[in-house]
Amino acid sequence: MTNILNLFKFIESKKKQYRVPFEYKLSNNLPISNDELIITNLNLYNSNAESLPDNLIVKGALQLNGSKIKSLPNNLTVGDYLDLTNSKIKSLPNDLTIHRTLNLTNSKIKSLPNDLKVGWHLILNNVSIDSIPNNLKVGLNLEFKGSAIADNYDIYSPNDIRKMIEDKGGNVGGKIIT
Q1: Prediction pTM value
Q2: Is 6 helix (H, G, I), strand (E, B) or coil?
Q3: Which domain does 165 fall in, by range?
Q4: Per the domain annotation, does 111 fall within a domain?
Q5: Distance in angstroms (rounded) separating the CA atoms of residues 87 and 110
Q6: Could you give the number of structural domains in the chain?
Q7: Would 23 be classed as within a structural domain?
Q8: Mind listing the pLDDT tens digit for each residue in 126-171?
Q9: 119 lies in some domain
């Protein structure tokens, strides 16, 4: 690791536009400066990284499926797609911002925070979430096939579920898929 890090630092000293890759810093617990907290995409699929820094902004996709990360940082913003499929993460922070899609398929998450806002799609397939949070806002579709929430609401139609969400101050702009 030291040789690779020294190589990155040497290159960085010669050309300021070249930096030690963000993923490398995360996987090796290296310091991350505030100006590095805004990135385009971050793919930590099956990564050894164990945490993400607070105030991280990922303009595109953040893929944490299969990673060792167990919790999301405070003030995380994802512009496109947050993929937590098969992740070890057990809860979502209250201040999470997802502009497009949140995929929790096969994750360990047991509940959704109140006031969760997902710009496009919320995918809750095969999860243990069994209740609807207050003020859930989903811009397009809400999908929860094979999950505890679907099992609890299997006697209700998608329109009944939409009404339950609205009664808790939330809304779904598109389809509810069970």
Answers
A1: 0.86
A2: helix
A3: 35-177
A4: yes
A5: 12
A6: 1
A7: no
A8: 998 888 899 999 999 999 888 777 666 667 788 888 999 999 999 9
A9: yes
